[in-house]
Amino acid sequence: MPGHVLTVAAAVLVFLALVVPEGILRHRPGVFLPGAFLRIPLEGILGAALLIAAPARARRPLAAVLGAGLGALAVLKVVNIGFLVVLGRRFNPVLDWPLFGDGYRALAETSGRAGAIGAAVGAVLGSAALAVGLTLAVLRLARLTARHRLPARRAVTALLAAWMVFALTGTTLFPAAPVASDSAAGLAKRAFVTVPAALRDRATFTAEARVDAFAKTPPSELLTALRGKDVVIGVVESYGRSALSDPLMAGIVGPALAAGDKQLAAAGFAARSGYLTSSTYGGGSWLAHASFQSGLWINNQQRYRQLVSGDRLTLTNAFHKAGWRTVGVEPGNTVAWPEAKFYGYDEVYDSRNMGYRGPRFGWSRMPDQFTLAAFQQKEYGRRHAPLMAEVTLTSSHEPWTPVPDMVDWDAVGDGTIYGPMAQRGEDRSVLWKKSKQVRTEYARSVVYSVGSLVSWAERYGDKDLVLVMFGDHQPISLVSGHGASHDVPVTIVAKDPAVLDRIAGWGWSPGLNPGPAAPVWKMSDFRDRFLTAYGKGAEPTRSPH
User: Fold this and answer.
1) 237 lies in which domain range?
2) Which residues fall in a coiled-coil region (predicted)?
3) pLDDT for 195
């Protein structure tokens, strides 16, 4: 009896490894989930046929090879499921290994080092157990087919006939998971072709990076229409289009943006907004920042490393060459940032030198209002030459609990005022099991991040302030929804009408909230459009006021 149970368990394990679709955790509400398992795997049929036909001496080694291969594919499938849920795409076996380190660090900062170590050890042991378990399962099933060759042949023949019928009719009971399954073979093929694809992409990117319309532009011709202005680029973590299109989240974010428009207008500002398509989704913020700054499409770590090892003109470098003081404010950084030199920053502030003494809020080491208050104290509020700064706002970074409150700017101090706020909010392990509530908290965090920037501009911004605000990527699919776009809002705010006149031809919507018809550009297009609009030779187009 125990032997029969083990055999059934082995068959079930092999079957699940072959048929579970990678998109199983992203199914739409109302989909018949058991349909994901009602599939006939072609790879299982062919594997069984090979084992039946193999000579006795070769059967065991063949079964071990097939089991090990299936184990590797099963581990890859589990990783793909995780990547699809978090990043909206599959794992690239060539390019994505560094992301595991980033994931570990993010988990350590949100759940503690012990929790991160436990998760990492669990993942390694689980992967090993799955690979070994599948190898042993295939060996056991190989012995079974050897003992019962005739029934096994009949079963393989019947299953192959059924597979062909379902393949011809195209029967599907679960999205992207047809009953006649060959997904394991497709997974193996995709993994195999990633190597030459990565090599081709390296060469492709090298060629793309050589083309730069602004590489030889003299400093005297760069950003001439912004001379004398202070340009602050506010990067809002995880601020995606879903915050403005999902009915639940838009009901929270939309009114806050409308209130922000009124605040800015009362302070003499006007705004124009559009959309950018981010090069990443759910994470990998540095890829989006690099695309925005460089004018190149940076959607993987290989491209990022190629970029920062070169001398591409970034937006920051363009300002630096044209005579601006350039500052980076990166509260999420805990160690030295070598890429600052590539980008062209004169000064970088991070969690080590911003003077914060308050509590953490999930991943975010400090509330956005404190980040902006520190920037005000250390740079913008002092007498200065024209300043260009990129300020990253991290309060809208997952896990979106707890969300701090705005306080009086004079009361921010060293951040200890935030102590009581960090103690409230639902435990993240509970929150993330509630789709509606996690979306609500995400929306609240976006309201806080954008509201902090608007409040700072309202209070401290003078006639020479030009504020550029954009989201780096959409939040994970748990929040943004299955099949969400990669679009993020982008806004330019200024008091001087001439600044917005320069972009009147862009077709952007008035205010902080891009309209449904607002144009959508690739994030990598922004650098060239911005440098063109504000450089020598560009003529302003008067817009109605």
Assistant:
1) 230-533
2) none
3) 78
Q: What is the pLDDT of residues 113-161, one digit of tens each?
A: 787 788 788 888 988 998 899 999 999 988 988 888 888 899 889 988 9
Residues 165 and 242 in one domain: no
Query: CA 500, CA 540: separation in Å to the nearest integer?
Result: 9
Can you tell me the distance from the alpha carbon of 37 to that of 133, in angstroms, rounded to the nearest whole number?
20
Shared-domain flag, residues 261 and 154: no
Q: Are residue 425 and residue 526 in the same domain, yes or no?
A: yes
pLDDT digits (tens, 9 = 90+) for 322-370: 999 999 999 999 888 999 999 999 999 999 999 999 999 988 899 999 9
The span from the first CA to the last CA of the chain, in angstroms, equals 83
- Identify the DSSP state of 75: H
pTM for this entry: 0.84
Q: Which token pair is 227?
A: 């001379």
Structure token pair of residue 460: 């401290």
- 283 φ/ψ angles, rounded to the nearest 5 degrees: 170, -170
Reading the block at residue 238, the tokens are 């995880």
Q: Tokens in use for 482?
A: 């299955």
Cβ distance 521 to 277 under 8 Å?
Answer: yes
- Which CATH number covers residue 474? 3.40.720.10
- Banded pLDDT at 28 (limits 50, 70, 90): very low
**What is the token pair recorded at 374?**
């520190």
Same domain, 333 and 265: yes
**Alpha-carbon torsion, ordered 283, 287, 292, 297, to 10 deg:** -120
Residues 237, 191 share a domain: no
Do 187 and 92 form a contact (C-beta atoms < 8 A)? no
Number of structural domains (the chain) is 2
- Tokens of residue 201, six digits: 């992409």
Phi, psi of 315, rounded to the nearest 5 degrees = -55, -45
Supply φ then ψ for residue 289, to 5 degrees: -60, -45
**Given this model, what pLDDT does residue 272 score?**
98
Interatomic CA distance for residues 440 and 536, integer angstroms: 45
Mean local confidence (pLDDT), 250-276: 97
